[in-house]
Amino acid sequence: MAEETQILDTQFDPEDEYRPEPEPEPQAPVWMDGSLRIGIHTSIAGSYLNALESARKLGSNALQIFSASPRMWAGSARIPETDATAFRARRAELGLGPLVIHANYLINLAASQPMLRTRSIQAFHDELVRGIALGADFLVVHPGARGENPTQRAVTTIVESIKQAAKRVPLGHLRILIENTAGMGTAVGSTLEEVADLVAGLTELNAGACLDTAHLFASGYDLSSEKGLEQTIEQIDKTIGLDNVPVFHVNDSRIALGGRVDRHDHIGHGKIGAAAFGRILKHPRLSSTPPAGVLGRVFLLETPIDDPGDDRRNVAKLWELAGLEDIAPKAEKGFSMLTTALKKRLVAHKKEAKKLAKSAAAKQKKSKSRGKG
After folding, report:
1. Are 146 and 155 in contact (CB under 8 A)?
2. pLDDT tens, 105-147?
3. What's the CA gap between 105 and 207, in Å, rounded?
4. Phi and psi at residue 248, to the nearest 5°
5. Please, are residues 38 and 58 in contact by the beta-carbon 8 Å criterion?
6. CB environment 188-209: b (16+ within 10 A), e (fewer)
7. CA 53, 57, 63 angle in degrees (round to 5)?
8. Which stretch of DSSP H or E encloses residue 299?
9. How far is the C-alpha of 112 from the C-alpha of 132, rounded, in Å?
């Protein structure tokens, strides 16, 4: 009987050599499944996680947040990695997306004053860093005010400011979006052509646009009628390109067509009207379903919360106007980011601020009259 050949465990056998498996194809995020994405701007007060829970409780499947206080220079504030990790994990659990971050209101990328422009570039750089840490998909920024500069020079300044802010920042899938403006003062971006020029100047960064319905209406684009909507859609496609508009801010307008003032209203309560938002949400070219629409396109509310429940009611209204109220995410009954107690505190705070302002004005007037005497 022949002896079996014994092979020691330490002996090399070419058959045992490691053969790496091919990397699995990355899976598309859940929010890119072709379904309608409706969200709302939620507060990060107390914790970034609170913003996710608010979006869920309000019946949204997407959200927008600030990454820091929008009316204060945050310096180079960074998000602790433990907080960022917890946020990304919880968002994945809830299936919320896309996640949109709105940049600080103080940022003026068109500023001609060297100090303000430098500070704005640094602040926008920090927004990019925080957005990446949170796993955001889009970062929306207002172009800025041009002051006495001509529009084209301001456009060039904005483009260069954004490029400087994004230097050596690994954007990954984070996409910068330029938001259109209502036309107040010297703000850049009140026409689709101006937004298109900015997007074209940032091609190397794959920038796009976020269009606000209230701003469009206030700057003269009639979304309230069927004909006006079709004309506006054609203009968007000819200038910016519909494929470059993955985010819409859906807000009704307290201001009449062409009023050039930024005043948001509840859906169906303003000059644009509920029927118009129904047409917008159901329009195939504005959908999140290719080939006519853009996969993952989102409609985000920035409507006021005057009374507890306004936020929840506006989200529900969009699902209703889209004809999807029966399959929409379930909102938590009675939940609102504005509680009755908080509203009382805010009203008291406003009254006190008004009283102090009135007192200061009276003192100033009295001081002037003494000086004349």
Report:
1. no
2. 999 999 999 999 999 999 999 999 999 999 999 999 999 999 9
3. 19
4. -120, 135
5. no
6. bbbbbebbbbbbebbeebebbb
7. 60
8. strand 298-301
9. 29
Q: Which stretches of 202-339 are DSSP H helices?
A: 213-218, 226-239, 274-282, 310-321
**Per residue in 230-258, pLDDT tens?**
999 999 999 999 999 999 999 999 999 99
pTM for the structure as a whole: 0.88
Strands 298-301 and 247-250: parallel
72 Cβ neighbours under 8 A, 6+ residues apart: 104, 106
Distance between CA atoms of residues 112 and 254, nearest Å: 32
Q: Tell me the CA distances in angstroms from 219 to 184, 231, 262, 278, one per residue in order.
A: 9, 15, 9, 21
The alpha-helical segments, DSSP class H, found in 135-268 are: 151-166, 192-201, 213-218, 226-239
Place of tokens 């006495």: 148
